[in-house]
Each structure stands twice: as structure tokens, then as C-alpha cells.
Design a protein that fits this description.
Helix content: over 70%
Strand content: under 5%
Shape: globular
Number of domains: 1
Order of helices and strands: HHHHHHHHHH
Distance between the termini: 31 Å
Structural class: mainly alpha
Radius of gyration: 18 Å
Number of helices: 10
Number of strands: 0
Length: about 200
């Protein structure tokens, strides 16, 4: 395991994206446990991209413009839906003192959908993982799976930190409706921007 791989992984995980935005929003709106649940979902969503890279599905997506565009625009639609839902449903970012027992599962599913429906993650792994595996190395597929597992672990730890950090300042915004409204609009705007960037390949 090289230092370069760990540093690159850390930078990629810390850089704000759809998963970070979602985890921060959930940590602020529902607290620490919900933030951790969102982190779990975002981490689970990495697994299909790693497997796609190892099995060669990523190469197919990269070669097939149609397959890439279909998955890409499915992700765009979902991000725009998240932005619309955040604005429309004031409860989406309101503090819920007693969330329903099933809400954790719902948060995980939403987090998985957000990251799975982003083909750029698969393309990233297609370009990222092979750089740290020698073409002459035996069991290169197992090596990439191991590296992907490390990436998932770092993702989980970073996202949990984001969720817990957001939950730690939750009490400071509970009694400030204007702040909550601003936060809800900010997260909605973030999802909108991310969706537009994905649509135009930026």
C-alpha cells in the first residue's frame, strides 16, 4: 500500500461532492446517528463502482457512449429531484427530534442511489485503481479489490467525520428558523449545481 495511494484517496474523499453534501445535510437535519447512516450508504455505493472496474464493466461504459449517457442522465435526474425535494419539503432539513425507526434505512438507500447513479465515479476508478497495480502483477484483480476496500474504508471514516461534525453544530441552528431555511436552500442549490456539472461533464 503506497503513501501516494493513501494521500490521493484521502484528497478524493475529502473533496466536497454529492455524498458529502448529502451527509452534511442529514447530519444537520437529523443528528449524529442519521449522519453515520448517510455515511454508510455513501460507502456502500462505492462497492458497485469498484466491482465494475475490476470486472471490466467500467471499460464497457467508457467505450459505450449510449450506456454512459443513460447512467449519467439518470444521475442528473436524481440530483435535480433531490434539489427540488429539499426546497419543496421543509421537513427535509428541519430537525427531527424523534425520527421514525425506518428512516435510517431510507437514508442509506438515498445515499446509495446518489453515488451509484454517478458514472463519473466508475470512470474515476477505471483511471485511478490501475495506476497502483502493476500490469505484470499476479492476481491484479485481487489487488484492485484490496485497494478498493481501502478506498471504501477511508470514504466511511471521512464521511462519518462530516456527519458527526454537522451534527455537533446542530444545536446551534435548531432555534434559528432562518438559518435552517438558508441551509435548506444552500443544500438544494448544491445538488442543483452538482447535477448541472454532471450533465455537462464538468
Amino acid at each position: 500500500m503506497s503513501i501516494a495511494f493513501l494521500l490521493t484517496t484521502l484528497v478524493v474523499c475529502v473533496t466536497p461532492g454529492t455524498g458529502v453534501v448529502y451527509t452534511l445535510a442529514i447530519g444537520l437535519s437529523r443528528g449524529r446517528r442519521a449522519g453515520v447512516a448517510a455515511a454508510v450508504g455513501c460507502t456502500f455505493a462505492v462497492a458497485p463502482h469498484v466491482l465494475a472496474t475490476v470486472t471490466g464493466v467500467a471499460a464497457l461504459l467508457h467505450a459505450s457512449a449510449t450506456a454512459f449517457q443513460i447512467l449519467k442522465y439518470a444521475g442528473v435526474v436524481y440530483l435535480l429531484y433531490m434539489a427540488w425535494a429539499m426546497v419543496r419539503d421543509k421537513g427535509a432539513i428541519d430537525v427531527d427530534q424523534s425520527p421514525a425507526p425506518a428512516s435510517a434505512r431510507q437514508l442509506i438507500v438515498r445515499a446509495v442511489l446518489i453515488n451509484v447513479l454517478n458514472p463519473k465515479v466508475t470512470i474515476f476508478f477505471l483511471a485511478f485503481l490501475p495506476q497502483f497495480v502493476s500490469p505484470d502483477e499476479p492476481h491484479s484483480a485481487l489487488r484492485m479489490l484490496a485497494l478498493g476496500s481501502v478506498f471504501m474504508l477511508v470514504t466511511f471514516l471521512v464521511f462519518v467525520a462530516y456527519g458527526v461534525l454537522a451534527a455537533s453544530v446542530r444545536s446551534h441552528v435548531v432555534s434559528r428558523p432562518r438559518v435552517m431555511t438558508w441551509l435548506r436552500r444552500s443544500f438544494a442549490g448544491s445538488f442543483l449545481v452538482l447535477g448541472v456539472r454532471l450533465a455537462y461533464g464538468g
